[in-house]
Amino acid sequence: MKQKISAFAATFLLGAFLSSASLPLPASEAPQPRHGTKLVIVNDDGFSAFFSGRYKNADDLRQQVASYADTSVAVFEWCITSGSRVNFPSKTSELIGTGVTDFGRRGDQVAADTLRRLATEGTDTLDIVAQACRTNRILCYASMRMNGDYAPSAKDDSLSRQFNSDFWRAHPEFRVRGPKGEDRTKLSYAYPEVRAFKLAILRDAATRDIDGINLDFLRHPPFFGLEESLVKLFQEKHGVDPRPLPVTDPRWGPIRAEFMTTFLRDTRKILDAAGAKHGRRLGLSARIDHREYAVLGCDIATWLKAGLLDYLVVGQRTLGGYEFDLAPFVQLARDAGTGCAVLFGEEGIVSGHDLTAAEDKLIKAGKMAAPQRDSLSLEHYQSRAVRWYAAGADGIHLFNENNRAVMRALGNVPAPAH
């Protein structure tokens, strides 16, 4: 099986190169603001509304997109992955929940049953969302969570069973490793087979009438560990064994970046080839952590200079309400001179946690109330946006946010509070 996957990886990567080698790499083309002067981009995780039962059919998806029509939302990011499985018919990975009969939470089964029914009926969720975006003159970016697989545990392996792909199960040898060679769950981008698997999902997505792809590096690092080949590279370059060193040692950054930049270049090739068929340029964006991006292998300076990105979202891998200096990222993009937009990445949820299987059982039995989560208010967003726009932000990226009033308000620079 390993040889089969390796052959697939080599064939895929060679095909992607040959199909697009003759295409010139254009400069970035940032999306244009809509109903305002600033970009507003919203991300839908492509799962929660299936989990809650709000998305039941194609019309529900169309109505969701149509609800943004009178807002400043210029780009709708529709997340296509949970773990390493997908929510649309794919030749590469399975639908979320495939093969699972015992779900940890009631909503997980609702989501899996709905996605399976829609696929059986011939409903392509990604295509429906893309067409609805076009109808409402909103750009549609397919968003991929870069490494969302779940670690199984003795108490609850339901998330792993539901979200982790058959590829993940078949290839433990391709996972991130700890200092003693222990399995750290996530797939490692150091392996060409892993990159080919992820790229094939994106290639599937690009056959739909989307406008671009978003790579979400906040969901969830790490992307590399102490795999044997990486340890060897580090030793050759620096003359020391990296296993006793902290994983945040800055010397790791350039080594990891070579693999991840290759991944972005290959994604750009997929988009250029698909764009040639669609008759237009397809965009590429990334969401990164302002603190950890370099050590995680995200060489954004190179990405920007090479014109790989059309917009860059800078946020923080935590609950919302965080603050940091956006100006250096704005300057980095301006210095690159390729036209990439820079957005402050807001996380709407400021407290709480995802529902667990144990909590869901207690709620079902009437022994506890559903846990509450607090979110940023419209006033919070507006006061924060004043600072991000003053720092040079081209717009705001909204994650875990459904308030249409927020999406209307942030398209223009709010007046400073007195």
The CATH C-level name is Alpha Beta
Multimeric organization: single chain
CATH superfamily: Glycosidases
Report the total helices: 15
Please describe what this structure looks like.
With 418 residues, this protein is of the alpha/beta class. The protein has a single domain (2-20, 27-409), classed as Glycosidases (TIM Barrel), CATH 3.20.20. Helices cover 40% and strands 15% of the residues. It is built from 15 helices and twelve strands. Strands 1-2-5-8-9-10-11-12 form an eight-stranded parallel β-barrel, surrounded by five helices. It has a two-stranded antiparallel ribbon with strand order 3-4. A two-stranded antiparallel ribbon has the order 6-7. A hairpin with a 2-residue loop joins strand 3 (81-82) and strand 4 (85-86). The longest helix is centred in the middle third of the chain and has 27 residues, at 252-278. The model is unreliable at 1-5 and 7-25 (pLDDT under 50).
